[in-house]
Amino acid sequence: MILLTGDIHGDVRSPLWVTQKYGLTPDDILILLGDVGLNYYGADQGDRKRKKLLNKAGVPIFCIHGNHEERPFNIPSYHEVTWHGGTVYVEDDFSNLLFAKDGEIYDLDGKKAIVIGGAYSVDKYLNP
Fold first, then answer.
1. What is the pLDDT of residues 44-56, one digit of tens each?
2. CATH number where 74 lies
3. Is position 96 within any domain?
4. Phi/psi class of residue 103: alpha, beta or left (left: φ > 0; alpha: ψ in -120 to 50)?
5. Tens digit of each residue's pLDDT (9 = 90 or more) over 76-117
6. In 3-state terms, what secondary structure has residue 64?
7. Are strands 61-64 and 29-33 parallel, antiparallel or unpaired?
8. pTM for the complete prediction?
9. Which residues partner with 88 through β-bridges?
């Protein structure tokens, strides 16, 4: 099963609720379409608590960046791996949280999808 949601702005309660309500397993995918808010503070420790909670859901969470978060390629703890035919950014401590790389094409349940995230916001620091 593939479920999509977006604009959680760091509030992990709704994605956690969805994984429980629908009984998602490691074979399923939860896609967060922009403004995820898990890299809001970049390499700062401020994001670790939310990442830890979401990672514990035990399902792949495929994140597409929005305009209110730092890009994973700017954060030293991320590295690239291949996932569903495309490249994603991942941190070893949070292996279920996968951040899409712009322009990559992914094979999701037999369907091809190209990912292009949102623009970078100049007002990011004014309104988390």
1. 667 888 999 999 9
2. 3.60.21
3. yes
4. left
5. 999 999 999 999 999 999 999 999 999 999 999 999 999 988
6. strand
7. parallel
8. 0.89
9. 81, 100
Q: Please determine, for residue 38, whether its predicted confidence score (pLDDT) is greater than 80.
A: yes
Residue type, 105: I
- Rounded CA-CA distance 41/128 in Å is 10
pLDDT tens digits, one per residue of 23-35: 999 999 999 998 8
pLDDT of residue 85: 98
Identify the residue whose tokens are 């712009």.
Answer: 102
Instruction: Give a yes or no: residue 123 inside a domain.
Output: no
Measured distance CA(31)–CA(4) in Å, rounded: 5
What is the domain extent for residue 73?
Answer: 2-114
Q: With DSSP H G I counted as helix, E B as strand and the rest as coil, what are the percentages for the chain, rounded to 5?
A: 20, 30, 50
Whether 105 is covered by a domain: the verdict is yes
| Pairwise CA distance, residues 103 & 108, whole Å | 15
HSE value, Cβ hemisphere, 13 Å, CA-based, for 98? 21
Helices assigned H by DSSP within the chain = 13-21, 48-55
| Domains contained in the chain, number | 1
- 21 contact partners, CB below 8 Å, separation of at least 6: none
